[in-house]
Amino acid sequence: MFIAFLQQYIETSIQRRTPAARQVKLGQRQIFIMPNRYGLSFLALVLLIFVLGTNYQNNLMLAFAFWLAAIFVLSILMTFQNLSGVLLRAGVSGRDFVGQRIEHHWSVEGQHTHYGVRVLNADEVTFLERVGPSFVGEVVTGVIYQRRGRHAAPRLRVETRFPFGWVTAWTWFQPDQQAIVWPLPIDHQAIPSVESGDGETSALQRPPGSADLDHSRPYQVGDAPRRVLWRHYARRGVMMVKTAPPEGVTTQAFSLQQVEHLPIERGLEQLSFWMTEALTADQAWSLQLGNEIIPLSSGVEHLHNCLSRLAIMGEQDDV
Q: What PANTHER family would the database entry show (predicted)?
């Protein structure tokens, strides 16, 4: 009971002193410092010399013990100074499917030159021989997620034992960045609606309102007012402009309504499968998720945008 309370107290204290942030400049509030096993062994040796000097009334041994103790205190100050002033910056996090390794990127900088800085996350250790104004350390950590959605970057432990290795100064850094994990593209044998270049729709019925956005793009200054989809603007508050449909191009309109007979996760996997197949076939597609409609488009960037919306489906906040 006491151990659990102590662990909770320590965790709360760490979170209070090192909250999630885009960047952190390390100072006295963020840095923790303790002797490591080498330091404890050194202190045991100093204590032994002191006891022997006292027992044999040997002033030289006593002076030597006090001199070693002074060096140990000096090492504490030097180790703290080596980590103080380090600037930790959050970078970018990747996007990929469930089960794939997603990378998080950070950088380590410094006001002056800092030596022997280590960055630890789980089983990964990045050793930076030196960092400073001219030596920016780049840290990359990969994580495999088994659930779709937004995932916070893992917390990092940044430490140093420079110069003597007797004490360890460390801190925790929680980068304020998130990875996007897409649902896997799995075919559950549902059938999407397909529209050919002449505008005819087959298979399942298209979702209401999505036809207005076929062959459209966001409004740009200078577009003719007659081409603006005013009905969509009145309903959604977003100005879209009608464009000419490409000849002979097969387009698809995907919607949650098409997979409502499936469990939500399987439905999202089916939509993910359809869109990846459409990209492979060089097709254009639109996507409707409830009241949100992603206009007709194609390409890798469009696929990533649609998959990211599927990933956060059901979450309160937008990316």
A: SLR1927 PROTEIN, SLR1927 PROTEIN-RELATED
